[in-house]
Amino acid sequence: MTWDEGEHVTILLTDARRGDDVAKRRLFELLYDELHRIAERNRYVGKEGETMQATALVNEAYIQLWRRIPPPPNDEPENRKTFFRTSALVMRTIHGVAFLALDEAMDRLEVYNDTLYEVVMHRYFAGRTFEQTAELMGMSESFVRAKWQLARGWLHRALEGA
Fold first, then answer.
1. What is the number of alpha carbons within 13 Å of residue 47 lying toward its C-beta?
2. Helix axes 141-160, 130-137, angle to 10 degrees
3. What's the whole-model pTM score?
4. FRET pair for 70, CA 20 to 30 Å: which of 15, 16, 94, 104?
């Protein structure tokens, strides 16, 4: 099973939240590989140029994820989308000070345009493809690509002033 098999992931999430240890282990196996791939791709850099090892980042992300994973909003049932959003949030917050300017820009982007913010969360922080992001957001791939370009430009301008 992969993250792309959404129905199975949703079932695992539901079972894990109910305390099913087998579901938690299976979810961990899937999540660990996915988070490690994202961490390797992004190579988060800390203060004074120290690179945080991908494995350390993934381990910290996983611990924080299970501590912080909030229930979905009342009007939205638990599913892949809510879980990926939470995973992206954890990956975003883990590197803290190293990306303070980006973090602040992301906060401003969320206020400015929630759709652009969601696209960046899925594409950059969660490592989703355009196709996966479009599916998770319920939008066309071309729409997501256009929003990605707008978001990148907006963030670039925001970070130039930082």
1. 4
2. 100
3. 0.53
4. 104
> Under DSSP, is residue 45 helix (H, G, I), strand (E, B) or coil?
strand
pLDDT tens for 1-34 read: 445 555 577 787 778 777 788 887 887 777 777 7
The pLDDT tens digits for 48-69 are 444 456 676 666 666 666 665 5
Q: What is the Cα–Cα distance from 138 to 124, expressed in whole angstroms? A: 18
Give the separation between CA 36 and CA 102, rounded to whole angstroms: 21
Alpha-carbon distance of 116 to 111, in angstroms, equals: 10
Q: Which two tokens stand for residue 34?
A: 């996915």
Q: Structure tokens of 161?
A: 């002033």
Our measurement of the distance from residue 99's CA atom to the centroid of its chain's CA atoms, rounded to an integer in Å, reads 15
| Amino acid at site 73 | P
CB 122 within 8 A of CB 128: yes
What distances in angstroms separate CA 131 from CA 7, 127, 151, one per listed residue? 17, 11, 17
* Residue matched to tokens 């990148």: 152
Output the CA–CA distances (angstroms, integers) from residue 70 to 84, 87, 123, in the order listed.
12, 11, 21
